[in-house]
Amino acid sequence: MAPASRHVFPLFFYLLCCIILSNSRTVSGQGQNKPVFACDVSSNPGLKNFSFCDSSLDFQSRVSDLVSRLTLQEKIGWLVDGAKGVSRLGIPDYQWWSEALHGVSYVGRGTKFSGLVPGATSFPQVLLTAATFNESLFETIGKVVSTEARAMYNVGLAGLTFWSPNINIFRDPRWGRGQETPGEDPLLSSKYGAAHVRGLQQRDDGDKERLKVAACCKHYTAYDLENWKGFQRYNFDAVVTRQDMDDTFQPPFESCVLEGNVASVMCSYNQVNGKPTCGDPDLLAGVIRGQWNLNGYIVTDCDSLNEMFYTQKYTKTPEETAALALSAGVDLNCGDFLSRFTQGAVTAGLVNETIIDRALSNNFATLMRLGFFDGDPSKQIYGNLGPKDVCTEANQELAREVARQGIVLLKNTQGSLPLSAPSIKTLAVIGPNTNANQPMLGNYEGSPCKYTSPLQGLAALVATVYQPGCADVKCATAQVDGAKKVASTADAVVMVMGSDQSIECERLDRVDITLPGQQQLLINSVAEVSKGPVILVLMTGGGMDVQFAKDNPNITSILWVGFPGEAGGAAIADVIFGLYNPGGRLPMTWYPQSYVNQVNMTNMNMRPDPTTGYPGRTYRFYKGETVFSFGDGISYSEFTHSLVKAPGLMSVPLQEDHVCHSSKCRSINAVEETCKNVEFDIHVRVKNTGEAEGSHTVFLFSTPPEVHNAPQKHLLDFKKLHLTPKGEELVRFSVDVCKHLSMMDENVNRKVALGQHVLHVGNLRHTLNVRIRRNINLQV
Ligand SMILES: *[C@@H]1O[C@H](CO)[C@@H](O)[C@H](O)[C@H]1NC(C)=O
Ligand SMILES: *[C@@H]1O[C@H](CO)[C@@H](O)[C@H](O)[C@H]1NC(C)=O
Ligand SMILES: *[C@@H]1O[C@H](CO)[C@@H](O)[C@H](O)[C@H]1NC(C)=O
Ligand SMILES: *[C@@H]1O[C@H](CO)[C@@H](O)[C@H](O)[C@H]1NC(C)=O
Ligand SMILES: *[C@@H]1O[C@H](CO)[C@@H](O)[C@H](O)[C@H]1NC(C)=O
């Protein structure tokens, strides 16, 4: 996101960008404390004559009426994010670009904070939220964010269209934007996207056609490289196999559209297999509209079209670029490319008005579903929301709760954590992220309600002595002596280390995945002299190679806290002092540094290649050493699993004359007529055998037979439960053989492998034999 063309026309674009920015701030009504909306019949009764303003009519008739009244010039003004109002029809300017990745953000041009609303609740960065594996929480956060967003809209500080969430797969540990995503697993990303979008969009009155705010799933598709060793997202060609596309990169988008009913999808900067995504009719019109039937609009990333023309040189003229994007299925352009070149494209006969009308209709329909054409918002469902509904006590408490639920305990030597406050006379708190405020938010942040830094959170519970240890997270020179001095006398040491946006962010991938600069030296030096336990708190986006800390017996505990949001410091203190029992699980693999030395970030392949020694990616395919694995995370309690019910054999009926009855088949088509409702249940008893109450996530993985480059293991489902000490619960999973146990083969046919599937729950392994049988209920 963020205008990208600066490397094309550096000065020109900066200027242009500032002009657009200041324009949109004045025109979108900001500073006037009033929302932007059309069809203001109370101040202009003549507007009643327009049927597009008549909220009793269906959206389609209203949209056609509106489109039919516009000149081509006016239409073109509604193809870009800074849409130009049509005053003769009572339509104001509208800025489409707002952001709310983990709270209402100031990043988009359509939203800002002011004296009236100085901040909004800043939840943890998404990767930490994903670590909660709490599906209802994903939705609850969306609900709170959209309430605050509506409240800000009502006072002219925000739009109604938000370009979040980011549901790209976190494919490579170096990716600067991995922090924004729900991690590396397609199932978790799919569940997160759908649940969060429902939370953002669904209205409380149950009206499914109308929207609270419009969300946007981005960046479609196979986008996960910023700037690595000279490779730039603006012209990177992601070479993706059909199989990886179908079982890794596309599922979160499919689920976002089909299960989440998202109102928008954003196409990315990069190319996929030689075609820019925003100019690929197969990916846009074909898949998003054709197969998934999106009810909403497709928007380009900010200046994707500029990049397509100037950087990728994919098209011969800007007009051809505009025509290609519109014909491929783009409805709205973040940037001004379509407002500059669409007229020319029409004049040259490269695109016609029918195509423009289609785009426009998708855009207007979205705004209609938001009530934008229903007159005064204060008389509509969310009309009574205002500044009082932003940063409420409950919302701020939820931000703290999400951080607590997400924090992952990765190492805990017997007796280290939790610390008991009465026995700590002095706590040494060391590290460059100890006194961090802004770094806790991650990117796509807004102004928070307030901050609680780790130092503040800990100091609220015990007496602390503080040493930064490094000037900043880059830690060019560790200040070892001061740190050692406090560590050697304190009863315990908490070191808050890691990264911030200077290390991993949008437009910046990492090259190394070790802790920056001399952080390791600082940690080891402190560990060598510490009197009490040393608790290493890693505040990072992506994973770090901290094998040294895992191996060092003096480092007694390790916590990953992501970028934990505005209340992060309070949540960290809650966990360290046992006011909350941690239950977060890693949503991504933590690789050793050797992995990135071996693997080019540009290699998109998920699957290993034995001929080149390429090791593959993520827990689904990578078999090498890890520092920590997907799903890792311990608790102050212990949980055991026992299998109560699971079948040993499942058979799929096949027609009498099916070839697999007479010859040996290793798999069958999951779309076979008879491959339906072949279902079974797995029941697992989960028991909390420890002394602390806490939440526990039960993962159900499957290892299919080795055929069709299947993953070595993949997540079928997960369930989170809360158990009191000695408490137990029966967890039930329902598995559909043809759906859940099937996979894409090399030619993207969905197949069920025959033979032994191994199901994993905790330490349990259960073998399920899938075979075929003759269908005796033949239909004639
Ligand atoms: C609206 O319609 C009424 C009657 O149909 C007409 O008298 C009036 O002039 C119209 N107003 C405008 C602004 O077109
Ligand atoms: C506009 O262009 C589309 C795609 O080329 C074509 O199918 C359609 O018939 C055209 N419409 C008109 C009115 O020319
Ligand atoms: C661990 O601490 C002890 C002192 O408590 C020290 O002698 C030893 O060298 C330390 N080990 C490491 C690996 O830092
Ligand atoms: C990585 O990419 C570079 C340049 O594109 C190439 O020379 C090198 O062989 C690649 N390395 C691996 C391990 O694929
Ligand atoms: C999921 O989150 C909700 C909201 O915070 C919480 O009430 C619930 O206990 C969580 N579920 C589990 C199993 O921890």
TrEMBL record:
Top-level taxon: Eukaryota
Subcellular location: Secreted
Signal peptide (residue range): 1-29
Entry-linked SMART domains: Fn3_like (SM01217)
Classification via SUPFAM superfamilies: (Trans)glycosidases (SSF51445), Beta-D-glucan exohydrolase, C-terminal domain (SSF52279)
Main subcellular localisation: secreted
Fibronectin type III-like domain: residues covered: 696-765
Keyword terms of this UniProt record: Glycoprotein, Glycosidase, Hydrolase, Secreted, Signal
GO cellular component terms listed in the entry, alphabetical order: apoplast
Name recorded for this polypeptide: Beta-xylosidase/alpha-L-arabinofuranosidase 2-like
Organism of provenance: Dorcoceras hygrometricum
